[in-house]
Amino acid sequence: MDLQHIRQDFPLLRDNKIVYFDSACQSLRSQSVIDKIVEYYTDYPACGGRSMHKLAARVTEEVDAARATIAKFLNAKKKEEIIFTRNTTEGINLIANSLGFKSGDIVVTSDKEHNSNLIPWQVLAEKLGIKHLIVKSLPDNTFDLAAFETLLKKNKVKLVSIVQTSNLDGVTNPIEQIINVAHQHQALVSIDAAQSAPHEKIDVQKLDADFVVFSGHKMLGPSGTGILYGKQKLLDNLQPFLVGGDTVASSTYTEHEFLPVPEKFEAGLQDYAGIIGLAEAVRYLQKVGLEKIAQQEEELNEYLTTELLKLPKVKILGPEDAKQRGGIVSFYVEKVDVHQIALMLSEQGIMVRSGQHCVHSWFNAHQLKGSVRVSFYFYNTKEEVDRFVRELKKIMNVLL
Ligand SMILES: Cc1ncc(COP(=O)(O)O)c(C=O)c1O
Description:
14 helices; 7-stranded mixed β-sheet; 4-stranded antiparallel β-sheet; about 400 residues; binds pyridoxal-5'-phosphate; about 15% strand
């Protein structure tokens, strides 16, 4: 698939008016994903798994096929290991509330976690008395594997819940080594793959990951869709967090019998259009190829980084080396309000995110107010980077 063709697949990009550099928040959707959602609402807008009629049977079939598509995408052993959620946040909350934590249990995270992988542990610490330990990053904001290893040697850790690729600066943590070390010390590992699943192959069997969570809306999927992968033997032993309709085989006025995974975790009527649309998104990404996607983003990152480093007063978060920051360039301009930059860029048709990106803890610890975050996806181009740099220079001339 050539790039020009790819841009034609995204309605917002067809006339080149908008530069969309906010895919880490939410990606754009291909026409094929939009069509698949419309197909559900137009042709078979019924319940899955409940009613016996033809339309319901079609929904059940499509949802089942979607689960199989995602399982293959992650190389899961079985499609039953795939649980549909609303987003990464829900997946992490499910683990936090279902793994049977008790007072004194230890959870380890990095110091660069999104609030979604921080607040659930803080709440469990308050409610149940779990201990939340944090591995501090190295001075260049990369993961300190040695400190992590020492921490695991010294403490009996129940769960390492860690981000794979940071939404703050784009740095990817050495997830294979993290899992190896954790497993050597009998700790489980949950990977926050919100910023990695859209860009790189995650092979859950090769990684030996216990849990992987991510969001569909950062990888061309519909808003409010997500995945929790878990090894079946772990999922079998988890207590469901949300319970009710569709989670039980039967109930009396006093008792109930839960269905096996994945049903016991998918309470209530599901976002069928979202699930079916997400599978279409995965098929599209597989057609483009994750390697090609990562390569395009890296090239754009390298190009923009070179340009930004020429500008005085611009500071890039994380390592200067673009190769270590995937598709994200997060920066601030000394003494300039980051929101002001984002608003002025928006006036010129360029969409970026500004602020603390739900990683307030890191910004507070570093006494920084925020950053402007450019996040690329494979549909972005060098010409768009040129336009961004041109506009940024004009803004800096006005503001500095
Ligand atoms: C690394 C990371 N983790 C978790 C999340 C939360 O994702 P969601 O809001 O889709 O639950 C995000 C969202 O930006 C993220 O970047």
